[in-house]
Design a protein that fits this description.
Strand content: 15-25%
Largest sheet: 3 strands, parallel
Radius of gyration: 20 Å
Helix content: 25-40%
CATH class of one domain: Alpha Beta
Strand order of the largest sheet: 1-2-3
Number of strands: 13
Order of helices and strands: EHEHEHEEEEHEHEHEEHHEE
Length: about 325
């Protein structure tokens, strides 16, 4: 049975501790609360496609393998990128695919008060600060903020987490293996609230995962680089660190992430079986396990029984396996 690795190691920076022992993350109460809780958290930037289904199906399978819950959260904190109606169509597609969440769907756009409280905690502790730097100001440092070099005071500055020299984070990803990042050198002080007033992904995802009691974060490998920042932020807020598992990415024939690709066609909710079978194969599972399954319910039952998490492919320099979806050629990172 799948055992998600939880032996995370955070190498503390050479400075005062970020953790405030008095800060406790409230777990969202829910009937039938269980020890394992996973989630799928799409952004409503378009309809559900083969790449996003991979993350949804993979996170659902891992949660079910652990006899845990699977929740869905809509990450709609960037209005400029949001496609009208996309969130509802994503939820309808998940329902057609038989992937039903175990709790009510929440939307980040209605959770600003939680993010504001977390931000105030960091500001009060001196762990966050107002920054007047623009992208142009930071161009000379490759966009990495190590000190404020803003040429003028902004009316609405961004808010950044203070990341001092030596802030390094190491952890073990359940799929990709050991990971380590010098956050200070490679990322620098990162944004928590943008200059336009919108919440940054890093803060929102950390607050929501803690508030919802998420114990395992399963998502695409494109977010692997964000994980050290989130772990540092969890420690700064006194919030728990979940287990992490980053799935292989679905790439187009040019090696681009599918969501960035022109032919990222939406899935057909009236014919969900081909999409589920393709995702099953990309996750490294034996396609023979789903033979003879001609409806969503029986296919998902067989998938739960046959799923082997050890078979999920990993690797940062992937070989590629081509498969067909909607008459387009895509490749899966292995």
């Amino acid at each position: 049975m799948w055992q998600a690795r939880r032996d995370f190691k955070v190498i503390p920076p050479r400075r005062r501790t970020l953790v405030n022992p008095s800060i406790q993350s409230p777990a969202a109460p829910t009937p039938g609360d269980r020890s394992h809780r996973g989630r799928f958290a799409p952004s409503p930037t378009g309809d559900l496609h083969a790449g996003s289904l991979l993350a949804a199906f993979g996170s659902w399978l891992l949660a079910r393998a652990a006899h845990g819950e699977w929740w869905v959260r809509i990450e709609d904190i960037d209005p400029a990128r949001e496609v009208p109606g996309a969130a509802q169509r994503q939820l309808e597609a998940l329902a057609a695919l038989g992937l039903h969440p175990d709790a009510a769907v929440v939307r980040q756009s209605g959770r600003g008060l939680l993010y504001q409280r977390a931000l105030e905690q960091l500001l009060d502790a001196g762990l966050a600060f107002a920054c007047h730097c623009s992208r142009t100001d930071l161009a000379a440092s490759g966009g990495i903020h190590r000190r404020c070099v803003g040429r003028r005071q902004r009316r609405n500055p961004s808010i950044r987490l203070r990341v001092l020299p030596g802030a390094q984070c190491s952890f073990i990803d359940a799929i990709q293996g050991p990971q380590s990042q010098d956050v200070a050198a490679e990322v620098g002080d990162f944004v928590l609230r943008r200059a336009d007033g919108h919440w940054a992904y890093q803060l929102a995802v950390v607050v929501d995962d803690a508030a919802q009691g998420i114990t395992e974060v399963v998502r695409g490998a494109d977010l692997l680089d964000s994980t050290p920042r989130q772990i540092l932020l969890q420690h700064a807020l006194g919030m728990p660190t979940p287990a992490y598992a980053h799935l292989p990415l679905l790439l187009d024939a040019q090696g681009r992430k599918l969501s960035k690709s022109g032919p990222a066609h939406p899935l057909d909710p009236t014919d969900p079986l081909p999409a589920l079978r393709n995702a099953w194969r990309v996750l490294g599972q034996d396609p023979r396990a789903l033979l003879g399954r001609h409806d969503v319910t029986s296919l998902l039952q067989s998938a739960r029984s046959a799923f082997d998490a050890v078979r999920i492919p990993a690797g940062q320099q992937p070989a590629r396996r081509t498969f067909a979806a909607h008459n387009e050629s895509f490749t899966a990172a292995e």
